[in-house]
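Example record

One chain of 274 residues, shown exactly as stored in the release files.
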Amino acid sequence: MAGGAVTRFAPSPTGLLHLGHAFSALTAAAYGDFHLRIEDIDRDRCRAEYEATIFDDLAWLGLSWPQPVMRQSDRMPAYRDALARLGPLTYPCRCRRGDIRAALSAPQEGALPAGPDGLIYPGTCRDRDLRDAGPDDVIRLDAGRAFDALGLDAVRFTDQGRDHILTRQQFLDSIGDVILSRRGMGTSYHLGVVVDDAAQGITLVTRGMDLFASTHIHVLLQRLLDLPTPAYLHHRLIRDTAGQRLAKRDDARAIRQYRIDGATPDDIRSMVGL
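Predicted structure tokens for this chain:
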């Protein structure tokens, strides 16, 4: 597939890009037709100056992409349409993190079950009608009903030529009812990325191993929305000297800082092992 795929890099302008982002973007670009997408649904944290720096950093690395750049903030009608299509399989949820933690804590002891989005939702609001949704509710997918509607016993995807399968029960136990629309955002990462990948014709999704579990969610949504499932490549993560995954708050490893310090694009490639 190398050289012939349609790939993308989809950062959020909530901080400066670091070495891990450089590795992810360069990996995507190595596989073919590279697209850039700005995931800016978090209006409270996204900043225009961060978006401008994303463009500057990626161009400095030698990357280019088709114009205009897709922005999630421009695509709310597409997310509303997808959410409406999933309507019979969704429900409103008023629970906060503290409510979920309390529901999971009693009467059991020990570690609480966690999935790709944190604590696995116990289904407290599952019987609520969507018509009862209020402005402070999130919208969740009833995963059990979703599998039943499709007649599926598992979700499957291919990563670097290897098939990965998660059964219905494993999905319910390890992921559960994910959020499709967050308060004040109109969508969620999971719904947005699925709708946008299809709209851009992405055939190969390259991203970090930290998002591997989320791919099962995305494949399920693709099936529900009758969208194509791309191939996936979950790459290694770039870590600091303590072995921790890099974060945007770690400005010392920001691409912009390396540029200021006189590094070259080839230096960045060497630092990330390319």
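Notes: The mean pLDDT is 92.
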